[in-house]
Amino acid sequence: MKKPVPAPIESLFARYPGLWGFSVRGLHDVPDNCARSGDDAELFVSDIGVSPSLTREYYGEMFQEIAATLAELLAEQPDACEELRGRTFARTLQ
User: Fold this and answer.
1) Domain of 12?
2) Helix axes 56-76, 7-15, angle to 10 degrees
3) Which residue in 80, 83, 77, 74 sits closest to 1, CA to CA?
4) How far apart are alpha carbons 11 and 54 in whole angstroms?
5) Would 94 be classed as within a structural domain?
6) Segment 5-34, tens digit of pLDDT
7) Is position 67 within any domain?
8) pLDDT category, 64, cuts 50, 70, 90?
9) 25: which of 15, 21, 29, 78 fits an S-S bond (Cβ 3.0–4.6 Å)?
C-alpha cells in the first residue's frame, strides 16, 4: 500500500519547481563522516534532486526549507519519524 505524502512535504514541491525529490535517512543509513547528535531518532536529508540550472543560493534556500518543513512536521507529529525514515519523496508528473 502506498503511503500518502504529508501535506507539508507536498507543499515543498509546489513552492520549489526546481525540486525533483529527496530522501530521508536514519542514523544508520548515512556515512560515518556525517556529524551526528547521538539521538537514534535523528533524521538526515539526502539525495536531493534539483534542476541543474539552480544557483547555489537557491539550492541552499531549498535545502533549509526541506529541513525546516521536516522539523515542523515532527514537532506537530512526533510519531511521524518512523513514517519518514527511509522514504524518498519525488515530484509527480501529471
Assistant:
1) 7-88
2) 160
3) 83
4) 19
5) no
6) 889 999 999 999 889 999 998 877 766 666
7) yes
8) very high
9) 29
Question: What are the residues facing 25 on neighbouring strands?
Answer: 44
Residue 46 to residue 25: CA distance in whole angstroms = 7
For 49, phi and psi rounded to 5 degrees?
Answer: -100, 125
The better pLDDT of the pair 69, 51 is held by: 69
Instruction: Look at the chain and report how many structural domains it folds into.
Output: 1
| pTM, two decimal places | 0.81
- Is 36 a domain residue? yes
The mean pLDDT value for 48-65 works out to 87
**Measured at the alpha carbon of residue 25, what is the angle toward residues 50 and 69, in degrees to the nearest 5?**
60
Beta bridge partners of 88: 23
- Assigned C-alpha cell, 67: 529541513
The reply to whether 84 falls in a domain is yes
d(CA 1, CA 67): 26
